[in-house]
Amino acid sequence: MSGNQFMFYLFGAVIVIFSILAVTSRKILRAAVFLLFVLIATSGLYFMLNYQFLAAVQLTLYAGGIVVLIIFSILLTSHISEKFEPIKPQKSIFSALAAIIGAVLCIITLLDYNFKAGNAIAADLDMTVIGKALLSYKYDGYILPFEVISILLLAAMIASIVIAKKIKK
Amino acid sequence: MTETDFLCLTPFLILALAPIVIMLVISIFRNYEIVFGFSLLSLILAFAALFFIAPAIPHSIQPLFIIDMYSLFFLGIIFISAFIVALLSYNYIKRLEGVREEYYIILFTSTLGAALLAVANHFVLFFLGIETLSISLYILIAFQRTKDNSIEAGIKYLILASVSTAFLLFGMGLIYTAFGSMMFSEIATAISLQGPLTSLAITGFGMMLVGIGFKLALVPFHAWTPDVYQGAPAPVSAYIATVSKGAVMAVLIRFFFNIKGFDDHYLFIIISAIAILSMFIGNILAIRQQNIKRLLAYSSIANMGYLIIILLTGTNKGIQASLFYLISYFITTISAFGVITLLSNAKNEAEMISDYKGLFWKRPFVAIVFTLALLSLAGIPITAGFIGKFYVIFEGMKAGLMLLVFAMIISSVIGLYYYLRVITTMFSPAGETTLPQITFMGKFTLAAITISILILGIYPGWLIDIITRFVGL
């Protein structure tokens, strides 16, 4: 087993184990921390593929930013000692069934897919290329979806203010 | 970007500017009437802009937008429906406590999301459109946040819609892996080069169908529908049933016809099964409902089941039939929810069937409007719903989809039962319930919608003529 293969399986194992722990843990803060490990391991996979930019975004935004946000909102809204009620056996059977069906579907698709072995390592895109494509208004530029995202975030912001604002009597 | 690009984007620019203007206005001083008037004006402007675009089409702004007659038609329906929903919301939202003007801001962002779906030609825009639409809907649904079931509906929709979006994204990812493109037309070319779909592609399309099926509330992804329709404010339920579903249908039809999904054996079976299940389960579960909003929710599940038959016809005629069907379904649904909206007062929604006991003897006008809307949903002649269904059945028969057409006819008969139950309740002797006064504007809107149901039912030729002359993919 080469070093690369070892790292791949290590990251894969971390992702699988901590994902399962994150959805089965009965303490919400723990679940958030398990999620953090999943996100970090995912960025490891990106590094292995030589996607430095994507990996850095994954680390700073998801592992760094979003998980901190999640933990903050957990600390603000619930008690750390609080535990979820155990799931009813009937429910857990059904969800296990759904998960197994999904897994089988994915495995069948993977086995059926005609993977081609290659030595070429994907070249990472230059940061300037990504930045320019995002803000270019010429052919193949992505300025329009960029603007749509800003409207989307605006909607999300207004929405959260509306739902959280105190009602004046 | 060229001048034509900007011209084609005008309706979107208007829809994007309006919420920002409203935001600035209410930060200076809050006036419900001004915000309401401005919203109506902006929607009219956006609609009028469509006529200026018409000479410039078909036009595509690479790589995401495609603006052709088909998308213009959908944009038109979306804007008109949003306009009517805004009109009906006036009194309903006015009497709520807390912030009210923000309702119109969010109505605009969601309409923008819906409008983007109608012009999407690329997974990126498809996804952004659906997300803009859903994020706005979460809040519209939970807008009466002092009510328990409104918040419950909002959270249910939030969680389930997020899960369905995950499926949609995963499916898009798989399709990108299989064909190396996210543009509808390029995927279509790749498919025609590669021959029959691989299992990777079918899994991808299947996953996308889960996401889309959720938004259209097709069985087996329908579980959220009755709770959300019940918990949401009545005009918002109308909005979900029409604008949100219509926009998703627009992008689904474009995508499915681009990739020629009807030629694939597996997709054909999957869609047939979803259609038949939606028709029967929607209609059968509606029978036992005592709550009229839940009843309409189940009825919308069945109606979407009828509509997706069109996907399997694979002809331009089929698309035209689906457009006519959607228009008739839109006006009918809006008028049904319009009645509920106008009959609800500050304390409680008029949502139980028993609230409508003897409505005819107290408010004959509203009762007649509601009767016509229900008859149109059931597909009884002289209403728009009949012509819409007839058109779909006709195109389905021509395409040889006998099983689906028979399922549609049988389940329609089941459906007739619960529509008639509501109608007989309205004509039975009057009960004790007190009803709110109905404003002139509400009456006028309802009358206009009802007249258009009748016009499309009695004399549909002109609309069919317009659709067949201009619209196709």
Please summarize what this structure is.
The complex is a heterodimer of chains A (169) and B (473). In chain A, 73% of the residues lie in helices and 0% in strands.
Question: Any key phrases for this structure?
Answer:
heterodimer; A: 169 residues; mainly alpha; 3 domains; 6 helices; B: 473 residues; 2 strands; 77% helix; 1% strand
Task: Report on the architecture of this protein.
The complex is a heterodimer of chains A (169) and B (473). Chain A has 3 domains: 1-84, Up-down Bundle (Four Helix Bundle (Hemerythrin (Met), subunit A)); 86-115; 123-169. In chain A, helix 1 runs antiparallel to helix 2 (28-48) and helix 2 packs antiparallel against helix 3. Chain A is mostly helical. The radius of gyration of chain A is 21 Å and the shape is globular. Chain A has 6 helices and no strands. Chain A has helices at residues 3-24, 28-48, 52-77, 89-112, 127-135, 143-164. Chain B has helices at residues 3-28, 32-53, 69-94, 102-119, 123-141, 148-179, 184-194, 199-216, 225-231, 234-258, 265-287, 292-307, 309-313, 316-343, 359-362, 364-378, 384-398, 402-427, 440-458, 461-470; strands spanning 59-61, 65-67. With 473 residues, chain B is an all-alpha fold. A two-stranded antiparallel ribbon of chain B has the order 1-2. In chain B, helix 1 packs antiparallel against helix 4, helix 4 runs parallel beside helix 10 and helix 17 (384-398) runs parallel beside helix 19 (440-458). Chain B has 20 helices and 2 strands. In chain B, a hairpin with a 3-residue loop joins strand 1 (59-61) and strand 2 (65-67).
